[in-house]
Every structure is written in structure tokens, then in C-alpha cells.
Design goal:
The chain is of the alpha/beta class and 340 residues long. The chain has three domains: 100 residues, Helix Hairpins; 117 residues, NAD(P)-binding Rossmann-like Domain (Rossmann fold, 3-Layer(aba) Sandwich), CATH 3.40.50; 73 residues, Alpha-Beta Plaits, CATH 3.30.70.1450. Helices cover 54% and strands 13% of the residues. It contains 13 helices and ten strands. A six-stranded parallel β-sheet has the order 3-2-1-4-5-6, sandwiched between helices. A four-stranded antiparallel β-sheet has the order 7-10-8-9. Helix 4 links the parallel strand 1 and strand 2. The longest helix has 48 residues. The two termini are 57 Å apart. 24% of the residues are buried.
């Protein structure tokens, strides 16, 4: 509900009461010729249904009293409705909003789960949002919950170390999970739970130090990020290689307006599989540049030659503008499998 609705209702009620009292005062003044204050007093006790000061002497004054009584009943009923809606409306609205969130999360597929919505989690969410990637936030800390609601993120309010809460966030349908809590132990529990439930899930975890990094890797994290180590490397590179660092910052950020990096897996049904970079004329057809190939065995072919064949299972690392990246993705899009 619009938060301005209830103040408007209260304002309308106050205006209606004021107009009714003024009208009643003028009417009693004209029909009974009483002093203004006496007319106001008679109007007030009549509208509020507290009784009549005395029985009006004329039929016209009695008619005014009847009209004011009806107006008073109407105003009191409206005031009761506003008060009831103020008390119960928030509860009902909150319950309906929570139900809508649950239904939305239930229908999500190939989304990401962010466990922990502190500074790191919020930055991850910002990148996901810029890349138009669906995600669910899982946290229970008051400040994190408030931040998620302010960002209008899909939220499961609960402890990410509990399996039930991971299921509520759609773990069985998720594409990946980010364990971004400030607590290494919490991240370790999250990684263990997620990996045991989903062996195929992509998991990236945050760690505060090398010991935690080792444990998270053993627990099943695909990648472990050390924010303080990474920050130190970036700061050093900004001094030693400022232009290189600025370029990497542009191409690795989803909000970058000029260039983007993308990784594209060559699937079995891709028509371009088995052909070389020269044969596909990638630069001419898409405008993007293939700067590396990750082979199926995990090795990288950096700056691949034009005659390098692109095989099934390879992952292309391409750089280009958003339109060029989309054209590159279209070139290597998986086609329909042909039945043998």
C-alpha cells in the first residue's frame, strides 16, 4: 500500500469534521439565534453523539440536529475504518508481500543465492543487477535485512547455515551460490551444506585469510576470494600499472559502459564447433576479440592464433562492447540437437 494513503485519509477525516462543525454552528446560529460559542458547543455535542445540550425549540433546529447526528455516525464509522486499516492493514499487506516473494522465488531457475548481505554481498548484488542476473539474498541480521528490503531484492530472512533456509532460497534450482558472510565459520557451514546438496553447483566463497581459504576449498568451494588480499593487489597495481588496472576495471565490471569481458562455453550442438577463429571471421562478424581459450583440460591458451580450432568444451574469453558481446554469444549459441 502507498505509505501516503493513511495520512491522506486522516487529513480528509479532519477536514470533514471541521466542515461539519462549522456548518452545524452556522445552522444553529441561524435557526436558534444563539451566541456563536453556544452554537459551536451544541454542534460539537451533537456531531460527537455525546448528547444534546437541550432539545431544540424549532423544527428547523431539530432537522439540523438530525443531519448532524447522521454526519457524526458517518464520521465515526469512517474514523474506525481508518484506525482498523492502520492496525491490520500493515500486517495483511506484509503477509501478502511475503507470499508474493515466496512464489517468485519458487519459480526461479538458474539464479544465484547471496548468503550474507554485508558490504561484499551488496556489491555482488549490484553486479548481478547490472548484468540482469536473477538472485536471492539470504540473511537474518537486522541491518542486512533492511538493506535488502531497501534495494527491493528478493529476500529469504533466515540463517544461511540452516539447510531449510537454503532450500527456501531455491538451492535445488540455483545456478550458483556466493558465501559472502563476514564470518569464516558461517561461510564454511554454507559451503558444506550447499556442496552436499548440490555437487554440480558453482560456489564462490569469501575468506578472511589463507587458513580459511584452504578450509573453504576443501569444503567444496570452486573459488575463494580474499577481499583484503585482493584490495592490496589492486592498490599496488594502481600505483605500478594504473592504465592496465583501469582497463581491467572497465572490462570486468557489469556496469562498465564501453567494454565487457564474457565467457562462452562451446557446447556439442554449437554449429561453430571444430572451426578455426580465421574460418569463423569472429572479429569481422561480431566486432569482439577472443583474447583467450580455456581448454577442456583446464589449461589456458592466451592470445590464440587465428588458425586455432575452437573445440567442444572450450570456453572463449571475449572482449568487446555490449552489442559485440551479444553478437559473439549468438555466433556460438547452442543449436538444437539432431537425432541420430
Amino acid at each position: 500500500m502507498d505509505p501516503n494513503v493513511r495520512p491522506r485519509q486522516a487529513a480528509r477525516l479532519l477536514v470533514a469534521v471541521a466542515l461539519t462543525l462549522v456548518a452545524g454552528t452556522v445552522a444553529f446560529r441561524q435557526t436558534l439565534h444563539e451566541p456563536w460559542f453556544q452554537s459551536l458547543y451544541r454542534s460539537a455535542v451533537t456531531v460527537t453523539l455525546t448528547g444534546l445540550d437541550s432539545v431544540p425549540k424549532s423544527d428547523s433546529a431539530r432537522m439540523v440536529s438530525l443531519v448532524l447526528v447522521i454526519a457524526g455516525v458517518t464520521l465515526i464509522a469512517y474514523a474506525g475504518a481508518v484506525i482498523f486499516e492502520s492496525i491490520a492493514g500493515g500486517v495483511l499487506t506484509g503477509a501478502l508481500a511475503e507470499r508474493r516473494r515466496e512464489r517468485t522465488i519458487h519459480h526461479l531457475h538458474d539464479h544465484f543465492i547471496i548468503c550474507g548481505y554485508g558490504r561484499v554481498g551488496q556489491r555482488v548484488a549490484e553486479e548481478f543487477r547490472a548484468a540482469d542476473v536473477p538472485f536471492v539474498v539470504l540473511d537474518f541480521h537486522e541491518d542486512a535485512v533492511a538493506a535488502a528490503r531497501e534495494d527491493r531484492a528478493l529476500l529469504v530472512e533466515g540463517d544461511a547455515t540452516h539447510d531449510d533456509n537454503l532450500r527456501k532460497a531455491g538451492l535445488e534450482r540455483a545456478q550458483g551460490l556466493v558465501a559472502a558472510s563476514d564470518d569464516d565459520a558461517d561461510n564454511l557451514y554454507v559451503v558444506l551444506s550447499a556442496r552436499s546438496a548440490r555437487p554440480d553447483l558453482t560456489i564462490v566463497a569469501r575468506a578472511s585469510g589463507a587458513d580459511a581459504e584452504k578450509k573453504l576449498t576443501l569444503a567444496g568451494a570452486d573459488r575463494v576470494v580474499l577481499p583484503y588480499t585482493t584490495a592490496g593487489q589492486v592498490m599496488a597495481n594502481l600505483v605500478l600499472k594504473p592504465q592496465v588496472t583501469a582497463f581491467l576495471d572497465v572490462v570486468t565490471t557489469a556496469t562498465g559502459p564501453d567494454l565487457q569481458l564474457a565467457e562462452i562455453e562451446v557446447r556439442q550442438t554449437c554449429a561453430a564447433a571444430g572451426r578455426t577463429i580465421r574460418e569463423l571471421r569472429i572479429r569481422h562478424e561480431t566486432g569482439a576479440i577472443v583474447i583467450a581459450l580455456r581448454k577442456a583440460d583446464g589449461s589456458f591458451d592466451t592470445t590464440p592464433e587465428p588458425d586455432t580450432p575452437i573445440e567442444i568444451g572450450d570456453v572463449l574469453i571475449g572482449v568487446g562492447s555490449p552489442d559485440e558481446i551479444r553478437a559473439l554469444e549468438d555466433l556460438f549459441a547452442a543449436g538444437e540437437a539432431v537425432a541420430g
